Amino acid sequence: MSVAPMLDWTDRHYRYFARQITRNAWLYTEMVTTGALLHGDVARHLRFDDAEHPVALQLGGSEPAELARCARLAQQWGYDEVNLNVGCPSERVQKGAFGACLMAEPQLVADCVKAMRDAVDIDVTVKHRIGIDQVEHYDYLREFVDVVADAGCRTFIVHARNAILKGLSPKENREIPPLKYDYVYRLKRERPELEILLNGGVKTNAEIAEHLKHVDGVMVGREAYHNPWLMADWDALFYGEQAAAPERERVVDAMLPYVSARLGDGSHLRHIARHILGLFQGMPGARNWRRMLSDAKLLDGADAGLLSQALQATLQGRRA
Predict the structure, then answer these.
(1) Residue 127 annotated as binding?
(2) What are residue 157's phi and psi, to 5 degrees?
(3) What does the entry list as the binding residues for FMN (predicted)?
């Protein structure tokens, strides 16, 4: 199991929060461009808490030498995996000549993977689509994977939709192109030696269990963000752990020292609170939780105690 890299969402605060719910699922950073690391504030992009392991850094780029340098940084900072983004369809990413448009250049992707693998000992993986624009046939996907696998990549995370490079927004690209899970299933059947993970449109644990009959892993995106308690049963269902699932109240308690530490580092509570609004999704009292942790006046200058207050208001709302 893994939680997808999501720009502006899967930052270090969300990942720490998610780790309080599942001990085993892999967590991915937001996509970080090679330029941001090579010419920007490395610590701001790469720092994370040890509790987040296993955690992977997703890179955006298309220059093998630059990606190799960034992969070295990922290893130096302690990441467990470095992942190449070959799936993002946004026009801004395309202008940088990376993301989903790289599916049209499988040999370049292979060169990028080889450069990264030669530079580090940690796993180098690729996240990609099943095709781009109007290319609908399965062979396109298989041929792309074969070229990249020849460069040594063993793990492919496949978003089971085409990426439409012109005319659709990133949001529309997550909804309009049809899901073709059968393409991903077939890829695993035909390339059993590769690790194949499925991504795209997964919303329930029952769906995850069905997909795992056909592939090696499942990556969940927005559902894990908006409804994070979906992850609470993953350790038991998909990793065979016997420990009891966490309780929401204990997750809040676990967040308190983290929040205090980050506020001490200069973060604002709103930067953390926005990621945990869905903790009580679907539960009585959830409105109180969301209201208090999204109220600008309450958040202004607040410390970790606001979480405790919001929890008490939530529990009172549940009893009411």
Answers:
(1) yes
(2) -105, 115
(3) 5-7, 58, 127, 159, 199-201, 221-222
CATH number, domain containing residue 269:
1.20.120.1460
The pLDDT assigned to 174 comes to 86
Question: For the chain, what is the mean pLDDT?
Answer: 95
Polymer length in residues for the chain: 320
Say which residues have a Cβ less than 8 Å from residue 221's Cβ, sequence separation at least 6: 3, 4, 6, 174, 199, 200, 202
The domain boundary residue, chosen from 215, 239, 263:
239
> Is 76 labeled as ligand-binding?
no
Give the whole-number percent of the chain exceeding pLDDT 90: 88
Name the residues annotated as catalytic.
Answer: 88
Same domain flag for 116 and 169: yes
The amino acid that residue 66 corresponds to is E
- Give the range of the structural domain holding residue 82, as residue numbers without chain letter: 2-239
**Per residue in 142-186, pLDDT tens?**
999 999 999 999 999 999 999 998 888 888 888 889 999 999 999
Asked if residue 61 belongs to a known ligand binding site, the reply is no
- pLDDT under 70 in the chain at which residues? 92-97, 319-320
* Token pair in block for residue 308: 């405790």
Last residue of a domain, one of 239, 266, 286: 239
d(C-alpha 177, C-alpha 174), whole Å: 7
Cβ pair 28, 2 in contact under 8 A? yes
Residues 8 and 81 in one domain: yes
